[in-house]
Design goal:
With 292 residues, this protein is an alpha/beta fold. It has 8 helices and 10 strands. The protein has 2 domains: 62 residues, no CATH class; 186 residues, Vaccinia Virus protein VP39 (Rossmann fold).
């Protein structure tokens, strides 16, 4: 199909009761559906074709010719709102330009965690380590602003240059250095598009091994880790878990699907004597609430 080319401009989660449907919650519900693009799900979604080998060269040739007429060769895939409940890292039928690959279940869970730490006065800021296009941190800022919370920051920690050099002694997944790269300018622009780029958002640029040891983070109420690698996950835990307040939440995006991440978390828990129950959020993510 040719399309008009567009110029780029187990244990369930904490608190399972429904979130009240007042204007604040309706705004946050809309944010979830827009950040994931669940709101835009149509019967058939158009996707860029990314074949390999000879097919790739053929598609490139066709698209170069079609591009002269403002067209592009694409494939069609059925897309429903239900496809956006779970994380869609490998989904081939979700809208491509979303600010997050997460599903709405993880965003629901984050909202409940934020409400809980605010209601119980758990001290500290919110941080995500590994942000991709920034969707989860944008939602964190949206939630704080919607609830009128002005004394907590959202920390956006990432290299903004993709994954670091891969240590083959530690990593078993076929990652490459630079995978998942999204520039700082792009993430800042994504915050600005939602009217959420302000003094309460702090960007921490660099590899975790370099930025977290003597970094500016003093106290956290929510620590979300989406670091992909064993080494990067361990860097985050060693440097930031000690500043996570009692009653705060430690959240791990890829615990159930990336063995290297799971190994890092399990080893850290064993070394530190952490016994809090690990609870499931969706098919990928887990969390626990720090007790002491």
């Amino acid at each position: 199909m040719l399309r008009q080319r567009q110029v780029a401009p187990a244990v369930l989660s904490v608190h399972t009761e429904p979130i009240p449907r007042n204007p604040t919650e309706l705004y946050l519900d809309l944010m979830k559906k827009v950040l994931t693009r669940a709101l835009m799900a149509r019967g058939m979604e158009r996707h860029t074709i990314q074949p390999r080998g000879l097919k790739s060269r053929l598609v490139d040739q066709v698209n170069r010719l079609a591009g002269r007429f403002g067209l592009e060769l694409v494939r069609l895939a059925p897309s429903r709102a239900e496809d956006y409940l779970e994380s869609g890292h490998e989904a081939e039928n979700r809208v491509e330009d979303a600010e997050t690959m997460l599903g709405t279940r993880q965003l629901d869970h984050m909202q409940r965690c934020i409400l809980d730490v605010v209601e119980r006065n758990v001290p500290g800021d919110l941080l995500e380590a590994g942000v991709w296009r920034g969707g989860m941190t944008i939602f964190m800022r949206a939630a704080l602003k919607a609830y009128g919370i002005g004394d907590r920051k959202v920390w956006v920690a990432d290299s903004f240059a993709g994954l670091p050099a891969i240590d083959g002694r530690q990593e078993t997944f076929a990652w490459q250095s630079g995978d998942m790269a999204v520039s700082l300018d792009t993430v800042r622009s994504n915050f600005a598009r939602y009217g959420l780029l302000d003094e309460s958002v702090e960007f921490l640029k660099g590899f975790f091994s370099e930025t977290l040891r003597d970094g500016p983070i003093k106290r956290l109420a929510i620590l979300r880790v989406d670091a992909d690698l064993y080494g990067s996950t361990m860097d985050v835990l060693r440097n930031l878990y000690p500043v996570l307040s009692a009653g705060g939440y430690a959240i791990f995006d890829d615990y159930q699907n990336l063995p290297d991440c799971r190994r890092a978390v399990d080893e850290f828990r064993g070394d530190q004597g952490i016994t809090e129950e690990i609870r499931r959020i969706d098919a990928r993510a887990v969390y626990w609430q720090k007790q002491s």
